[in-house]
Amino acid sequence: MLIVMRHGATEEEVQRVVDVIVEMGYQAQRMPGAQRTAVGLVGNDGRVDASRLEGLPGVQDVIHVSQPYKQVSREWKAENTVVRLPGGLCVGGSDVVTMAGPCSVESEKQILDAARQVKEAGAVILRGGAFKPRSSPYTFQGLGRPALTLLAKAREETGLLICTEAMDADGVGWVAESADIVQLGARNMQNYSLLKAAGKCGKPVLLKRGIAATITELLLSAEYLLAEGNYNVILCERGVRSFDTITRNMFDLTAIPVVHKLSHLPIIADPSHGTGLRDKVIPMARAAVAAGADGIMVEVHPDPERALSDGAQSLYPAQFGQLMREVRVIAEVIGRRLAEPAGVNA
Ligand code: PEP
Ligand code: MN
Q1: Which of 124, 178, 305, 319 has the fewest beta carbons under 10 Å from its own?
Q2: What whole-number distance in Å separates Cα of residue 121 and Cα of residue 109?
Q3: What pTM was computed for the model?
């Protein structure tokens, strides 16, 4: 529930609303706005009797949030959330953010080569898994913590920001220390202890849609992060499993405008996991930008034939260069532009 204060409501009137919410057994959250202050009521499961609040001095309106996810919803916050990253890079504003890099960090040479190549093509964030959630326990599981050091080295050398996955609640701290964005993978979208830990980690979180998750479930998982006080959340559509096995997943681009309508959080698209096939990644990346995605995440490998994971969906660096030239034009057609590297406009 949202208690909207009148324009010019006094500090005492706002505090009185906060006190009554706490007396009622809920938590109050002040939300100062450009025009007027609102106070959010959280901690309820079901409709709250608003009669005590409606009559308080300074209260203009009481809005019942109809969605099961509260703080994530547009009803709660009408303006888009803009996630601010180091160097002035923003996700959720008018710029389209490009994240690229290999599925996994494999060696110092591989990640540094990849970083230089995607930087050269114009990407602003380097992706690469240090901890890999793999379907088989016998496949490459990632280099673990040493890979975080390699990613930091790549950032130092190229200026690219770093996005990498945390796989469990115990590992979030390490990842948050090194990364600029903590990725939570599709297999972990409903790992609630991980979501709670990431909600407290102090870094922006990229939350990927689960393999068979509805959009409502994605938004409810995001609510866990906001409920812990982390408002810097970026959602990611990466395809869902379907009856059709001709592609790795069914890339649900409808999720982009649907999420933009239901939530104020930014959403990016990952056509690499969304399709699983290199030659399908390029058209779907173009389509994602055209559909209004706030960014794209694309797997690019210096030598995809030798990749230790997801080689078949990894672009060759030259292909990524071509894709960047194309999405730059597409972004402009819809009144956006590709984000410049961190620090350029800071
Ligand atoms: C990844 O980004 O490499 C990854 C494992 O993605 P997802 O969680 O979407 O499968
Ligand atoms: Mn991958």
Answers
A1: 305
A2: 18
A3: 0.95
